[in-house]
């Protein structure tokens, strides 16, 4: 029940993002969301264990996740979702386990991608191409490209974290990364000339914003940490592959938009890519130690080793 609930909570986040972006600028929306969620998670971390990072590797770990995952991935995800539906964004995000496997082979000296990994990447990218439908005009390619690059940053940050020897507790790492990353997002919003959303907590954006901060951002991560302690990082990572399904169902129920056959076909190709890329259990090769418990496979929100930020 906890696993399925988490899939619904994080899958619904894509619908909430799409709804909120109708009235709130994207980088302000992402920045304010993670600023508040980070404050709550940080308070929980400080009350339950060590919170302050110690040493170069722990501060680097915070910087990597804040820059690549919170700011880079989410900034591009929110920008991309201004152009494409959230349910389609969720399918592209589910490509992250495949990209993480390949990125690990390219960036980690002890790893090397093999033919099966390459086939997995081809299937995954093929799924994104099917969704983008280059021959048609139904899905803006710019939106697909933004989300895809964001997922690539997510995968890179996940692998970078794996290379660091950090003992910072997961909740503390999440809290610090959210606070630092949200600051980067706010700076980006100002640089883009986005108007400050004075009505983010009122009007039509209020419910999506509260859901993203408290539901997906706080309750979702606390449920994730509980699942992580019960079943470990390998099994909990599979939640990434329920998220596109729950996102599509949520969009159908809330927005009245039924999933299309093209989106379904693209998701199946991405899932086949995941099956190929993880055929020899790359999680065994990239197995996170206790310091990497926050890493998931994907994550995007998918990824074989990644911090889970779905939303």
TrEMBL record:
Residue stretches spanning the membrane: 26-47, 59-80, 86-108, 115-133, 139-161, 173-193, 205-224, 236-255, 261-279
Keyword Transmembrane among record annotations: yes
Domain EamA: 2-131, 142-277
Entry keyword Transmembrane: yes
Pfam families in the cross-refs: EamA
Membrane topology value: Multi-pass membrane protein
Originating species: Halolamina litorea
Keywords annotated in UniProt: Membrane, Transmembrane, Transmembrane helix
Superkingdom field: Archaea
Compartment(s) of residence: Membrane
Main location: membrane
Lineage: Archaea, Methanobacteriati, Methanobacteriota, Stenosarchaea group, Halobacteria
GO cellular component: membrane
Name of the molecule in the record: DMT family transporter
């Amino acid at each position: 029940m906890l696993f399925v609930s988490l899939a619904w909570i994080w899958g619904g986040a894509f619908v909430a993002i799409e709804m909120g972006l109708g009235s709130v600028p994207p980088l302000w929306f992402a920045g304010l969301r993670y600023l508040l969620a980070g404050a709550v998670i940080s308070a929980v971390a400080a009350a339950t264990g060590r919170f302050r990072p110690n040493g170069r590797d722990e501060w680097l770990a915070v910087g990597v996740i804040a820059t690549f995952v919170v700011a880079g991935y989410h900034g591009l995800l929110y920008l991309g979702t201004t152009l494409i539906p959230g349910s389609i964004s969720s399918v592209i995000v589910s490509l992250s386990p495949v990209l993480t496997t390949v990125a690990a082979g390219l960036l980690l000296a002890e790893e090397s991608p093999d033919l099966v990994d390459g086939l997995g990447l081809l299937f995954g990218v093929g799924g994104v191409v099917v969704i983008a439908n280059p021959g048609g005009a139904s899905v803006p390619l710019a939106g697909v490209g933004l989300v895809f690059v964001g997922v690539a940053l997510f995968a890179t940050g996940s692998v970078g974290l794996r290379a660091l020897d950090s003992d910072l507790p997961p909740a503390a790492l999440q809290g610090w990364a959210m606070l630092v990353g949200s600051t980067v997002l706010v700076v980006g919003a100002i640089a883009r000339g986005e108007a400050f959303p004075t009505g983010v907590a009122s009007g039509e954006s209020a419910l999506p914003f509260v859901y993203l901060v408290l539901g997906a951002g706080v309750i979702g991560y606390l449920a994730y940490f509980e699942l992580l302690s019960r079943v470990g990082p390998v099994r909990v990572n599979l939640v990434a592959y329920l998220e596109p399904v729950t996102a599509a169902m949520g969009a159908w129920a809330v927005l009245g938009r039924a999933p299309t056959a093209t989106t379904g076909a693209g998701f199946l190709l991405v899932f086949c890519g995941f099956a190929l890329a993880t055929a020899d259990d790359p999680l065994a090769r990239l197995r996170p130690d206790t310091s990497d418990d926050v890493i998931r496979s994907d994550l995007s929100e998918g990824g074989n080793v990644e911090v889970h930020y779905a939303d």
